Amino acid sequence: MKITNEIKRILAFQARSLLKARGSINNSFKLAVEAIFRCPGKIVVTGIGKSGLVAQKVASTLTSTGTPAIYLHPIEGLHGNLGVIQKSDIVLAIGKSGESEELLSLLPAIRKIGAKVISLTATRDSSLAQQSSIVLHVPLKKEACPLNLAPTTSSTLALVVGDAIALTLMKMRGFDADSFALYHPGGLLGKKLLLKVSDIMRSGKRNPVVSLHASMDQLLVEITQKWTGAASIVDHKGHLVGLVTDYDIRNAFAKGELISSLKIKDIMNPHPTAVFSDDTVMKALQTMERRPKPLTVLPVIDRKKRAVGMLHLHDFVQKGLVSNASQQ
Question: Which of 34, 81, 108, 297 has its CB 3.0 to 4.6 Å from that of 230, i.e. a possible disulfide?
Answer without folding.
Answer: 297
